[in-house]
Amino acid sequence: MKEKIIAKASELFLKLGFKSVTMDDIAGEMCISKKTIYKYFCNKEVLIEESTSMVHSQVHEIMDTIIAKNYNAIHENFEIREMFRDMFKNNIDTSPIYQLKKHYPEIYQNILSIEIDQCTQCFKDNIDKGIREGLYRSDLNVEVYVKFYYTLIFHINENTVSESEAQRIELEALEYHTRAMATEKGVEELEKQLKRIKN
């Protein structure tokens, strides 16, 4: 039952927002009493913590699945971006990350510290892969480019209220990041990916 509550709460939080969803809403959606929810979670904050942790794990599992498909480095980044777009396509217009930071800053900081470590590794692996494939320049300072990119992405998510706007700017950031690193072969692949997502 605990896992079912976390799953339903996660779905509602992402769709309607962390602030607006109440324990009554979750109980109503699940046709259970609010008392049942409080049996597992002493308050809404604990439920939000568990929910964000579950979503975080799911995101990284899907990312691992995409990486395992062995696309080239540039294609891989576009696939990961599309995965995020699909995950959040049913939510309200307000970005879940922006909401979390605004209304539950402690939970946000906890998630952020884990996320930065995992994203840093993910970005680093992608750049190393792109260099091996000849898509990114071999003279890159990988650590600096990793830092540039996650600073850019986290800044967009933290400061953009609208989810659709955040996704639009993130695509611009991905193009910017890729062009900054790309070889001639990489630019060709980038143009191919941009054309693919526009169709």
Automatic annotation (TrEMBL):
Pfam families: TetR_N. InterPro entries: Homeodomain-like_sf (IPR009057), HTH-type_Tx_Regulator (IPR050624), HTH_TetR (IPR001647). It comes from the Bacteria. GO terms for molecular function: DNA binding. Residues 22-41 bind DNA. The keyword DNA-binding applies. Residues 1-59 form the HTH tetR-type domain. The keyword Membrane does not apply. Keywords: DNA-binding. This is Transcriptional regulator, TetR family.
